[in-house]
Design brief:
The complex is a heterotrimer of chains A (293), B (249) and C (251). Chain B is of the alpha+beta class and 249 residues long. Chain B is built from 5 helices and 15 strands. In chain B, α4 runs antiparallel to α5. Chain C is globular. The chains are: A alpha+beta (293), B alpha+beta (249), C alpha+beta (251). Chains B and C meet through loops of B and β3 and α5 of C. Chain B: Keywords: Exosome, RNA-binding, rRNA processing.
């Protein structure tokens, strides 16, 4: 098992020492994100998020399947997170590391369990046929703060995604190919985003946002807030680490909300731009008018 | 530079007219070239073919990120752990560890050898590099027994990763004229307002920047990384230095 | 959506990998990262040569036997190109992430199990080679690859998914920069005569002589428009030239 490369003693000491003076290696403010960029692929449901040197690609797909027997009225929604050696040679195929497990659990809680996607709308015939929506998260490059970047990618990919249209006439299910009928977007209820804080110092006195990989390796603790732009908290994860003052954590939560609003604005803007780009030439518009019922 | 750039790809034949001929010196092949007996010389990497007729040598100039040890290179190594006779050091992530004997320091004896903790950075010279063996390092000049600036790196400062090509340019004797990097001079000079710092450049793509003031370390480190990443020329470097100094102060 | 068939490449997409390239051609986009030479694990360690590890990851779903098959083909081809004897006991790791493939508007594909696609092979191969070049891994030669589908006595270069579906046979061929055949994989029914034609057609695509060569006029006799693809070798050269120029801007 190849081991992850540890930062040197000199680097660790310097990062901690500089943070005491509120100084980060890349010159950012403590609560400042690296430039966040979101692009969509040619196909629907492909979103790539770049956060500094961190890069995450998410791809949403759908296929027909049978619902789980205990939930006959719900479609299936899964998020699959697998870190490949592309992320770093220390990640092996089919051998999940702690990073990978934590990331997938956080995404699961943030997006799936918060009911962001209306799974009932994915059901076609109760107990018989439903859509299985799957998001594959590919971490292409890891320079810290995977959670926040991956969450944006998952949400953006799902909101960008179009599944094939289907109809039921006289008990017969017809699924239309893209050539027959314009695919339809998923029924999306709200967009939760993650904001991760990293704490430094004995008491977690220094809190910063969007830690780089080096900062993550040196930090004393972390806490992830997941919320939507309305300030509704979906989950808070503080997995061990130094104890942090509860009042400071409240302060973090309110700053998180402003960040979530910024991220949310960016995603909405990029989605609107992409829609405009696709509508060019009136080809799509024409198809849509045809299918309007 | 004088003639056109000869970009070569692996396996491409080299025009015989480009191969230097010298009556006395034997032909020396540098990185990126291999000799297939009897007389074929073939590039193995994509880069620019450089020839030096005076020394009868030729090599391929290219940039990469993965350090391959070569004898007499100065490197910034990181101690992984200590064994009974030597330290195991890492030159780049995920590569086989290099060995640094406990006695390969200035005036080191069994009793006075430096005690280095795992994670400590050392500035060392590659004393042995062979593809069949793990590389060996030393922190002392084997002839004079002097450290010559090598040894454990102490004091406040931080290490920054740069590309191998940039590290090589920084190490050039006349880096401003030949390598086109004047960023360190500028930081210490007029443009940077006379920042006080020291550096140790490793051929393995790591640069240590030391200074009493963390701000200075951050400025210098960012200036180096940005210059490398954006491929700045001298004028661009000047602007960058001015901007960074203003931003951080 | 219109799919541009002209090849496109971007280097250094992944700042933390030793080498990386994102290459798109004929509707396929593949991202490759190369790390190496790094320390091989005990089970992969070879005393005299480097182990080349190729990992193909589908855009959606988990990799299965089809990906393993593609990996095996690429692994043996790339091991021939890389000078593995230079790095004993080392590992050269190539990860190929498929990002997008052309859609077939007439079928709802079962996306979770991406089909084995010979049409994808040339893109995978080309991306891997570009990433290896960007990582500066020493190689014996470069290579160019192409896919050809045969249906109703018609040959299609860089077939679309629909072409592959209707084709009688699909072939992938790769040639090194020394014009040697590096890889030939075929699927479906075909005659020896057909294979010979395919071999010639593929060779014409992969081993087009440099445009400044005098022999160019002689080869210009092919009239079948289907056999004309982009000049891959010229593409490889010109992209590498601009990359080297950017890397050595200070020279």
């Amino acid at each position: 098992m190849p081991r992850e490369h540890e930062p040197s003693l000199n680097e660790k000491q310097f990062v901690t020492q500089a943070l005491q003076e509120n100084l980060r290696l890349d010159g950012r403010e403590l609560d400042q994100y690296r430039p966040l960029e979101l692009t969509f692929g040619d196909q629907h449901g492909v979103a790539e998020v770049t956060l500094g040197k961190t890069k995450v690609l998410a791809r949403a797909t759908a296929e027909l399947t049978v619902p789980y027997p205990d939930r006959p009225l719900d479609g299936i929604f899964t998020i699959s997170t697998e870190l490949s050696p592309m992320t770093a040679p220390s990640f092996e195929v089919n051998r999940p590391t702690e990073t990978e497990v934590l990331l997938s659990r956080l995404l699961e809680k943030t997006v799936r369990r918060s009911g962001a996607l209306d799974t009932e709308s994915l059901c076609l015939v109760a107990g018989k046929q439903c859509w299985s929506v799957r998001v594959d998260v590919h971490v292409l490059s890891h320079d810290g703060n995977l959670t926040d970047a991956a969450c944006v990618a998952v949400v953006a990919a799902l909101r960008h995604f179009r599944r094939p249209d289907a109809s039921i006439a006289q008990g017969v299910l017809t699924v239309y190919t893209p050539a027959e009928r314009e695919p339809v977007p998923l029924s999306w209820l709200h967009s939760p985003y993650c904001v991760t804080w990293s704490f430094f110092g004995d008491e977690g006195a220094t809190a910063l946002l969007d830690a780089t990989w080096l900062e993550e390796q040196v930090r004393a603790g972390s806490c992830t807030f997941s919320m939507n732009q309305h300030g509704e908290i979906c989950q808070i994860a503080k997995l061990g680490g130094v104890p942090v003052d509860a009042v400071a954590l409240l302060q973090c939560a309110s700053v998180s909300l402003t960040r979530v609003k910024e991220i949310s604005d960016l995603v909405d803007r990029r989605l609107a731009e992409d829609l405009k780009r696709r509508d060019k030439g009136g080809f799509m518009a024409e198809l849509r008018a045809e299918n309007d019922r | 530079m004088a003639t056109k750039h000869h970009v070569v790809l692996p396996g491409e034949p080299i025009d015989p007219s480009l191969i230097p001929t010298h009556p006395k010196h034997p032909l020396r092949l540098g990185p990126g070239l291999r000799h297939i007996p009897p007389e074929d010389i073939v590039p193995t990497v994509a880069g620019q073919l450089i020839t030096n007729p005076a020394k009868n040598s030729m090599w391929i100039e290219y940039n990469s990120n993965r350090y391959i040890p070569s004898q007499n290179d100065l490197v910034l190594a990181q101690i992984l752990r200590s064994t009974s006779d030597f330290y195991l050091c890492s030159l780049s992530p995920h590569t086989a560890p290099a060995t640094l004997p406990h006695l390969a320091f200035e005036a080191a004896t069994k009793k006075t050898r430096p005690q280095l903790a795992p994670g400590q950075l050392v500035y060392a010279r590659v004393s042995l590099a062979n593809k069949h063996m793990d590389p060996e390092l030393e922190c002392v000049h084997p002839g004079t027994g002097k450290a010559d600036g090598l040894g454990p790196i102490a004091g406040p400062g931080c290490a920054f990763d740069v590309s191998l090509g940039f590290a090589r340019r920084l190490l050039m004797a006349r880096s401003r004229e030949e390598g086109g990097v004047g960023v360190l001079e500028m930081l210490g000079g007029e443009e940077g307002g006379g920042l006080a710092f020291e550096t140790a450049v490793g051929r393995n793509g790591r640069v240590w920047v030391g200074s009493e003031s963390p701000k200075t370390v951050v400025i210098v480190g960012r200036a180096l990384q940005e210059t490398d990443r954006l491929g700045l020329g001298l004028e661009g470097q000047r602007k960058l230095v001015k901007r960074l100094v203003k931003e951080v102060k | 959506m219109t799919v541009s068939s002209a090849p496109e490449v971007a280097f250094g997409v992944l700042p933390r990998a030793d080498g990386s390239a994102r290459y798109s051609h004929a509707g396929y986009t593949v991202l490759a990262s190369v790390n190496g030479p790094i320390e091989a694990q005990r089970r992969d360690e070879h005393a005299y040569e480097a182990h080349v590890d190729v990992i193909v990851r589908p855009a959606a779903g988990v990799g299965g036997t089809r990906e393993r098959h593609l990996e095996a083909i690429l692994q043996s081809s790339l091991s021939q190109l890389i000078l593995i004897k230079n790095f004993p006991r080392c590992l050269i790791q190539i990860v190929l992430q498929v990002e997008s493939s052309p859609e077939n508007d007439y079928v709802n594909t079962k996306l979770v199990q991406a089909s084995l696609n010979f049409a994808l092979m040339p893109t995978l191969m080309q991306t891997a080679i570009l990433a290896l070049l960007s990582a500066g891994v020493p190689m014996r030669a470069t290579a160019t690859a192409t896919a050809i589908a045969v249906s109703h006595d018609k040959t299609v270069v860089d077939p679309s998914p629909r072409d592959v579906e209707t084709a009688r046979s699909v072939h992938v061929l790769a040639f090194t920069s020394q014009d040697d055949l590096l890889l030939a994989e075929s699927e479906g029914d075909f005659t020896v005569k057909e294979w010979d034609d395919i071999y010639e057609a593929a060779k014409k695509i992969c081993c087009r002589p440099a445009p400044d060569g005098a022999s160019m006029q002689l080869d210009d006799d092919d009239s079948s428009p289907a056999a004309v693809g982009p000049d891959l070798r010229q593409f490889l050269r010109s992209t590498m030239e601009s990359k080297v120029a950017a890397d050595l801007h200070w020279k």
